[in-house]
Amino acid sequence: MRIDIVGAGAIGLLFAGELSAAGHNVHLWTRTEEQADWINRHGIELEHHNGLRNTVKTGIEAGVLSRGWAEKAEGSAWVLLAVKQRHLTSGLLDSLAFIKESHVPVVCLQNGMGHLDRLASYLSRDQLYAAVTTEGAKKLSANQVIRSNPGQTRLGSPFEADPVKLTEIADVLGQAGFGAQVAKDIEREMHRKLLMNAAINPLTALWRIPNGELLTSEYRRGALEGLISEALAIYERLGIPYDADIGEQIKEVCRTTSGNISSMLADVQRGEETEVDFINGYLVEMAGKAGMSAPAHEWVWRLIKGLSNT
């Protein structure tokens, strides 16, 4: 099966490497010619949480996004959109016209919220699928990635896409070693992930600490709990369902990923723009629509934005 993956960050490299190792024909689209050339010459190097390493060279081909990628992906069985929300530029979105014409199903792997409605303006709603993943991955170089925390990937149809196709891609990912399942309510899963990211990510980025260290003092735990409580008040006002023990679930994520660096901290360390606009910023927007304020989330949003001069 041919699968096109757009974006060669940590998650893109991880999915490309594992799917290729499982025997699929993977086309990986990168933002730079240097990364594409390096992957074509050296393959993808995967390191697993148990220390096992392997290099995948067969069944994978890398290309540059700026060179008509979507036209070449018309014959693909699936497109996995693994770029961060900030990379959903007008140029990339405009290029999706070829994908819309061929009606290739697209799985969206972005953090945060708001991207699906935006993508629905460029693609048919019935070809859009959403994925929420807790896979832990760290990109070491242009072609090296560590799978630090095997997680779960929940798949769903936010609009009216074919549920049979969901089972197909879940099976494909399962065969490649991912814990993939079709979610009964993908919107609920997305709001759950939004809450986790909004509580954990900005604090780890501001304090420059791995996830587990959020629980090491009463002040850090208090800040974490404050962000959770404020978000839940927004959810309650808007009628968004959540698990009664969601606060403990978030703390358990901190424990099970104790040594992991959040994606927001990784962006800060690299001096790159973060996804805070689509996480905490999105919650602030939700609060405004609900006629509420969200001072804690607005404060961490502004602090993260202030780390950059732009």
Automatic annotation (TrEMBL):
Superkingdom per UniProt: Bacteria
Entry EC number(s): 1.1.1.169
TM region positions: none
Keyword Transcription regulation: no
Pathway: Cofactor biosynthesis; (R)-pantothenate biosynthesis; (R)-pantoate from 3-methyl-2-oxobutanoate: step 2/2
Keyword terms of this UniProt record: NADP, Oxidoreductase, Pantothenate biosynthesis
Top-level EC class as recorded in UniProt: oxidoreductase
Pfam family, one: ApbA
InterPro entries: 6-PGluconate_DH-like_C_sf (IPR008927), 6PGD_dom2 (IPR013328), ApbA (IPR003710), Ketopantoate_reductase (IPR050838), KPA_reductase (IPR013752), KPR_N (IPR013332), NAD(P)-bd_dom_sf (IPR036291)
Domain Ketopantoate reductase N-terminal per the UniProt entry, residue ranges: 4-157
Domain Ketopantoate reductase C-terminal: 185-307
Catalytic reactions of this protein: (R)-pantoate + NADP(+) = 2-dehydropantoate + NADPH + H(+)
PANTHER family on file: 2-DEHYDROPANTOATE 2-REDUCTASE (PTHR43765:SF2), 2-DEHYDROPANTOATE 2-REDUCTASE-RELATED (PTHR43765)
Function, in words: Catalyzes the NADPH-dependent reduction of ketopantoate into pantoic acid.
Family (UniProt): Belongs to the ketopantoate reductase family.
Protein name: 2-dehydropantoate 2-reductase
Gene source species: Paenibacillus physcomitrellae
Top-level taxonomy: Bacteria, Bacillati, Bacillota, Bacilli, Bacillales
Gene: panE
